[in-house]
């Protein structure tokens, strides 16, 4: 007959090691790394709480609850009686410093054990240094110009300055002045030719009067349009 173990022998027998939860077919990196750590405890749920290991963050938190170290004192969330498990456990190098209770449900940002992220100032864009002078197109690198309306206004103003608008009367007076200048040039040319060939190439009186009449009519038409 086999002898039954005595109570003293049963008390001296080592307790079975806690088992790690099974990993899914496609575990995350945190799951794989946590599964390589030694199991420390069997997680104990708070009364009335259950777990949902189907979510990756929840399974990572359960693996950390098994393999991590108890934090004394715990975070404010665990100390207030919140969290899935009864103890506040942290795993060095995982979950950004937050405990497993807070990491459950992807709520690690609320953990008071989590180190605050250092405020990093936004880098200011550096414009290329160029020698003064030259066109602005040559001095500004591509991509530095903004497409805002403020950068388009000077270009539009430059176009308006290069192409001024004239009224009909102003255009008529400009043509009249041009006709007078052309008549004067022809008159000078005629005088030069007369000196060399002794021939009168000047504009007759009647033609001069006709030119004057055309000029006057052009000016009157321009003023009438206005």
Give a short synopsis of this structure.
With 226 residues, this protein is mainly alpha-helical. Helix content is 45%, strand content 2%. The protein is rod-shaped and about 155 Å long.
Search tags:
9 helices; 2% strand; single chain; 45% helix; mainly alpha; 226 residues; two-stranded antiparallel ribbon; 2 strands
Describe this structure in words.
By secondary structure, this protein is an all-alpha fold. Helices cover 45% and strands 2% of the residues. The protein contains 9 helices and 2 strands; from the N terminus they run H-H-H-E-H-E-H-H-H-H-H. Strands 1-2 form a two-stranded antiparallel ribbon. The protein is rod-shaped, with a radius of gyration of 48 Å.
Helix content: 40-55%
Helix vs. strand class: mainly alpha
Low-confidence spans? none
Beta percentage is under 5%
How are helices and strands ordered from N to C?
HHHEHEHHHHH
SS elements, strand count: 2
Q: Main sheet: which strands, in order across?
A: 1-2
Q: Span from first to last CA? A: 133 Å
Question: How would the blueprint of this fold be written?
Answer:
Layout: H1 7-12, H2 29-35, H3 56-67, E1 69-70, H4 76-79, E2 89-90, H5 100-103, H6 136-139, H7 149-162, H8 168-197, H9 205-225
Helix pairs in contact: 2-3, 8-9
